[in-house]
Amino acid sequence: MPPPVPDLNLLRTFVAVAAVGSFTAAAERLGVTRPQVSQQIRKLESALATQLLRRTTRRVGLTQEGRFLYERCAPLLGDIDSSLERLGNTQPELSGTLRIGAPIDHAAQVIAPVAAEFSRAHPLLKIDLRASDHIQDLIAEGIDVSIRIGWLPDSSMRVTKLADFHQVVLASAGYLARSRPIVAPSDLANQQWIELSLLRAPLTWTFERDGEKVPVRMSARLKTDSPTVLRSWLMAGAGISVASLHAFSRELSEGVLVRVLPDWQLPSGGIFAVYPPGTHISSSSRTFVEFLRTRMHAAR
């Protein structure tokens, strides 16, 4: 008796891993987490009672059976996706109301321009953009999709990863001129740190360079739950803090702010689209998120 036909989503995950040779890269391509990819591969191998991938510390390779399956399934899945895309293009125009949640700064700088462009492309659709720097209750507030920045503690949430962002230490030239010299991460412990309380650990940071990791505990006199206030304090020379490199690219290019310790790296964060649990994802939400992802990647 032949093995049962597996879920097509499991095959899509397998094809993605086989194509890029990495669980992490496949997860980014599919917009899911790495543990979800690993789980789906295990399910597929269990359903087929066959090892498809050979894992090493550096790369994921195909077994002979895996290569056989990949070479036959990859073009078939491509044909299926193309057919579904053509079918989707014949569906009715997007309509109703799309409610989007996002942090205030990100809503103003990124989401609002993209939403305006998306609105022009879909004139029957109403868009309600709700900006808040606090975690929004998607069900209670009726939000269709929320854009969140940082780290998601609950991997069971229904999310699509849109992009990564790099964190850097920033200060104004005026502040640096009157502060103690900063030549190593440990020097930051004696600086006027600005604490952004929205972060899960705003006073503890680990810097890395050439494999060396240096944890530093900061001390803050200024504290805020608003990234907008953080921006204002940094530009006014009130102190020093960590912020997104992409979000402050204009201030850096204009010389209003200066990157501190550029040879040291901080952990990267993610930008995610989060959907309400237990509900159908609307076509307007899916279409907007894909539109947003395309625009964000084009801008980088």
TrEMBL record:
PROSITE patterns documented for this protein: HTH_LYSR (PS50931)
Keyword hit for Lyase: no
Keyword Transcription included in the entry's annotation: yes
Domain annotation HTH lysR-type: ranges: 6-63
Cleavable signal peptide: none
Keywords tagged on the record: DNA-binding, Transcription, Transcription regulation
BP GO annotations: DNA-templated transcription
Gene Ontology MF terms: DNA-binding transcription factor activity; sequence-specific DNA binding
Record-linked Gene3D superfamilies: 3.40.190.290, Winged helix-like DNA-binding domain superfamily/Winged helix DNA-binding domain (1.10.10.10)
Family per similarity comment: Belongs to the LysR transcriptional regulatory family.
Name of this chain's protein: Transcriptional regulator
Organism: Rhodanobacter denitrificans
